[in-house]
Amino acid sequence: MSYVASPEEVAIWEKFSSRPEFSQEAIKVPFRTTLEFVKSVLPPGLEPADNPTGSILVGTMESRLCGEFDCTLVTLDTKFKDITGKYCLLMLISGDTPVTWGREVWGETKKTGITRLWRSGNYRYGYAERNGVRLIEVEMKCGDDLAAETVRGSQFEIKAYPHSQGVGLQWEPKVNVLDVVEHKSRRAVGKGRLTVRGTRADPLHTIPIQSIGEFEYVSGLAEYTVVAEHDLGCGNAYMPYLIGRHYDDLRCFRIGAQWTKMQSDEPEEEKFPVQRLSSL
Question: What is the pLDDT of residues 116-150, one digit of tens each?
Fold first, then answer.
């Protein structure tokens, strides 16, 4: 491939991008939060689902699009145009192409991070790490293998970009509605423990997790397909939600002496409460 793709290379890119498929191995943990929190983080146009619930997924993926990569998701159950689906608060992904493709093509909230998953007999342990902090840890004991099942749902990704001059948005945000089909070839449920830590860059500590449900270990094919695109319809009112989900607080980064003249104080890393929950 050269710096100008050939017609064949363009056709291949479009073929792979229009219908990517993934396989996953993951631990899923459903949780219940508060209606007030859900309302506070949803942009105009999206509404809370019938119950203030969400889920955490910690795992690894392979794909027919961009190779293998780590994957951690924190999502809330929401509604858009009477469709119930997932709205992502945090998505940690490893690898340049998996991160870049997802952010640019679908508008995903992908940030570069590390996820690890281990197995020992019926025990499973996984964690998600970013900037040296283990933001999420999950530990479970699986029961007997259950029958395979296929689950269908929806996911909402909002594609928006900051303006090239740095103020406001480049254009009206687009809501991509994804049809998600999970083929759970291998699955088991059980009890476990969840630890959640937050930082200024990844404020998971602000999610008031009231309780957690049954842990699930899954492995199998996961199909994601964009089936509709809509204008969000709120213009620059989406800007706070874009910055909050897609970007780190720029005040976290050191400013060079050229600008501070060595007169600034280096901010100390803030400490936030750790949430530890158990279904044991």
Answer: 999 999 999 999 999 999 999 999 999 999 999 99
Selection from 161, 174, 173, 164 nearest residue 243 by Cα: 161
Strands (E), 94-214: 110-112, 114-120, 123-130, 133-142, 149-159, 174-184, 186-196, 211-212
The Cα angle at residue 179 between residues 17 and 207, in degrees rounded to 5: 105
pTM: 0.95
CA distance linking residue 66 with residue 232, whole number of Å = 28
Residue 234 CA to its chain's centroid (Å): 23
175 in Cβ contact with 229 (< 8 Å): yes
Residue 107 burial (10 A CB sphere; 0-12, 13-18, 19+): buried
Q: Provide the 3-class DSSP secondary structure of residue 266.
A: coil
